[in-house]
Amino acid sequence: xxxxxxxxxxxxxxxxxxxxxxxxxxxxxxxxxxxxxxxxxxxxxxxxxxxxxxxxxxxxxxxxxxxxxx
Length: 70
What we know:
Blueprint (H helix, E strand, L loop, with lengths): L2 E3 L2 H14 L5 E7 L5 E5 L8 E4 L5 E9 L1
Antiparallel strand pairs: 1-4, 2-5, 3-4
């Protein structure tokens, strides 16, 4: 997707929520790299602490699965 978090715990929470919402059998927490110039927006809401980075999915490289959520 276009929304990523720099906080692994936040990413795991969203993966689990999306698994439930979409009734998926599995969800994944991914880790990847981007070039700083490819960041479209950085959102750090002081109440939610999501550390959200908005990027184009095609700008992510060398990504790997950190965790599979069953």
